[in-house]
Amino acid sequence: MTHRTDMTHDIRLVVLDMAGTTVADGGLVERAFEAAAADLGVEPGTPGHAAKLAHVRATMGESKISVFRHLFGTEDLARRANTAFEKAYGELVDQGCIEQVPGAREAIEEIQQDGRTVVLTTGFARATQDAILGALGWRDLVPLTLCPADAGGRGRPFPDMVLEAFVRTKAADDVRQTAVVGDTSYDVLSGVRAGAGMVAGVLTGAHGEDAFRTSGATHVLTSVAELPAVLRGIG
């Protein structure tokens, strides 16, 4: 674990990403993308398929519909791809292909026992988010879960979901009393843009320390399991 020591604000609200941060999905995003690409006639092994898959990998953490708008150009094609993606991902979830990141549930429970509010966010659609929560038995784990549609339609790297969590929970008096934690540079950038006092990248998902630091992370954690102790150490 590495971090800077300039934190001064007592953290009252903790906004956690799901896939890659608190949820281990074993590469299901790429598998679901394969299904979406096939639905639109993009054949595996072609240059177009490889380029699109590279973009999916580079934009992990971004709202999936935004990714598909970039890849396929028109709103109709983007929605077709997104529907196929969400269907495929949901089927994989139903097959038991996800699990929590080791210690994630315990970390969330510890943070809440310490008197902080936790919100879970995702770049997936609500139906997929609910399927993941149901598969893990997490439906009642936190008081609020958010997807891009819950925050007006814009996902990461925009700050909207973080700010929505701040407004809805009223857990903090100042946005600097918010911690944002995720496994991608998009998670980090959304926290920075929201003005969060702590913005942490975790090394259990898509991106690494260099990407986190470049995006403005204040902390880099090996896993979300470290988070309760880090929060206790900063107020």
TrEMBL record:
InterPro entries assigned: HAD-like_hydrolase_sf, HAD-like_sf, HAD_sf
Gene Ontology MF annotations: phosphoglycolate phosphatase activity
Gene Ontology annotations for the cellular component aspect, listed alphabetically: cytosol
Gene Ontology biological process terms from the UniProt entry: DNA repair
Protein name, per record: Haloacid dehalogenase
Organism in which the protein naturally occurs: Streptomyces colonosanans
Lineage: Bacteria, Bacillati, Actinomycetota, Actinomycetes, Kitasatosporales
